[in-house]
Write the structure tokens for this entry.
Amino acid sequence: MPPKLAEIVDEFATAPRDVVLEMLLEFADAMPPLPEDLAGHEGMEQVPECQTQFFLKAVVQPDGSVVSLFDCPPESPTTRAFAGILAEGLAGASATEVLAVPDDLYSRMGLANAISPLRVRGGTAILGRLKRQVAEQVTPLQAE
């Protein structure tokens, strides 16, 4: 797991429940805006497991690093928080690091005690789709 993401996981896992909710709101507010060229979600994948409209796109750069792009409406703070956590925690991460992120990331963070299982399932789907997009881009590169 990338060091920054591991740090975020540890912070959440050790925080009291009321602080966890505040931390989620901070990540939701800090989520970077979507670049203008993706405003219509062109080339982005929708995550239907989320209760709200959520779109993502992962791009593996020539140096092996991954750029993750997310879009979620501001009125969905929990889902935006998942995106904000991944955006910050995976910034500058390599494809190998992204693929190594544990699938139970949100459970490890202790979020199952703070938010509904349905929300945790949505966050897990976001991570799963992100990892799948990265894997699809890495596999052809490794075959060359």
